[in-house]
Amino acid sequence: MSFKLDAGSEARGRMTIGDAFGRLVRGGLPLRFTAYDGSTAGPSDAEVGMHLRTERGLAYLMTAPGDLGLARAYTSLDLDLTGVHPGDPYDALVLLKDHTKFRVPTPTEAVSIVRSLGLSHLRPPAPPPQEHLPRWRRTVEGLRHSLVRDAEVISHHYDVSNRFYELVLGPSMAYTCALYDPPTATLEEAQAAKFDLVARKLALGPGQRLLDVGCGWGTMVRHAAREHGVRALGVTLSAEQAQWAQAAIEREGLGHLAEVRHLDYRAVTETGFDAVSSIGLTEHIGVRNYPAYFGHLRARLAPGGRLLNHCITRPHNGHQETGAFIDRYVFPDGELIGSGTIIAAAQDAGLEVQHSENLRLHYASTLRDWNHNLVEHWDECVAEVGEGTARVWGIYLAGSRVGFERDEVELHQVLATRNHVDGSSGFPMRPDW
Question: So which domain of life are we looking at (predicted)?
Answer without folding.
Answer: Bacteria
